[in-house]
Amino acid sequence: MLAISLQSVLALIAAATLASASPRLDQRSQDASTKSGPLGLNNVKCSDVTLRTSITTQNFDFVNVIDNYDSSDYVTSTFLAFTGRNEQWVAEHFPGTRSPVSSSFTLRGSYCEPIRGAKKGSSLLLATHGIGFNRSYWRYPYKGPEYSFVNHAASYGYSSFIYDRIGTGKSDIPTSGGFSRMQSPTEVGVLTNILEQARNSNVIGGKKHARIVGIGHSYGSGQTLAVTSARPELLDGVALTGLTPATEYVPDTIYSGAYTPMREIAGIENRNRPRIWIATGSRTSLVQNYIDPDNADAEAVNIARRGEEGVTLGIYTTLGNIASPAPAFNKPVLVLNGNHDLPFCGSNCERTVPPLPEGLRAIYPAASNFTSIIIPNTGHGIAVHRSGPDSHEILLDWVISNGL
Length: 404
Ligand SMILES: *[C@@H]1O[C@H](CO)[C@@H](O)[C@H](O)[C@H]1NC(C)=O
Ligand SMILES: *[C@@H]1O[C@H](CO)[C@@H](O)[C@H](O)[C@H]1NC(C)=O
Prior knowledge:
The protein has helices at 6-19, 72-84, 86-93, 149-155, 184-200, 219-230, 250-257, 283-290, 298-306, 313-318, 342-345, 388-401; strands spanning 44-60, 98-114, 124-128, 160-163, 212-217, 237-241, 260-261, 278-279, 332-338, 369-375. By secondary structure, it is of the alpha/beta class. The site of one 2-acetamido-2-deoxy-beta-D-glucopyranose (NAG) has 11 residues, from helix 9. One 2-acetamido-2-deoxy-beta-D-glucopyranose binds at residues 133-134, 136, 141, 169-170, 269-270, 303-304, 307.
């Protein structure tokens, strides 16, 4: 988010600010609801999917870094320099050049389909989670099915595919290459490959999927956006949640996150992760980055904390470099954010006119329908909040009303 793309992204925000009048955004109820589609929230059946990807991606070269870092002080010193002395850090470590890197990964996911009432001709909803979570962000294991996006989708007859991003859940967890391999271009390459397999093979749900809506949360939205720039034909619509073009709150997020090698963190399940994997240093750090604590149940947050997943320095320092305009993407775009999002809005998405998420409109000049919605009383990790069930309904309402 920082590094070399900062200037261009800020220019995009400025353009968007000039170009669009302030929209009246939806204001929805803050209470968890059990609203659903006509088929009800128990109409889903999920099966395990194993995908193998072999990709070659143009990765960023890093110089003078420890690729297989294993010390928490190195992590801290890198973040302090990346945030506090960004230009100097970029000059010393990030030449901006790229080299091909070949990778093979095994990914695990779930294909979740309606038990009955599958909607004819409907798109596959292919969802990519963000940092700190795994595929269960979309099937959130709190309370009943109302917190689970895939259950809401099936209640309207839609099928979903959710997967553990590399380094999380049951997918491959690389033990090395914290800068050189585990960085954003690799993951955009993985998502691109998954979409190709979904369209051209039977590996997901035993059939080819002719129409696919890309759904993302946070970094998963950034990856989905990157696909709409480079390979617009792979997606029929995108719903980007937890994403704005603003980069100025990234340092706050890094500081509050107090990122620490997972091996050194007490109270999380995934303490056995290889040393390149880091996570927020405490429950407080997780809450600051992801949650509006007045508006999420403590047990829902505890679940996120216990199961927290990791990230690498390479991912964090290249996140901003995958967001480029998508002038050829001429299909519907939804941008959905919690109004108290820290990483992308500094805890107030409506601090500007038009609100920050609107800035993504400039990236999609050809979108057939651009909708930006801000959910009240919600932080960055939208699905964990009491508004989570409503946000799932809002997203599906957009899918259906856009004929996807
Ligand atoms: C995935 O994350 C959830 C919490 O979001 C956690 O409960 C679960 O244990 C994690 N799964 C794996 C395989 O790590
Ligand atoms: C654009 O999307 C909104 C929902 O986000 C919907 O209400 C509206 O009907 C859509 N417009 C068109 C022309 O499809």
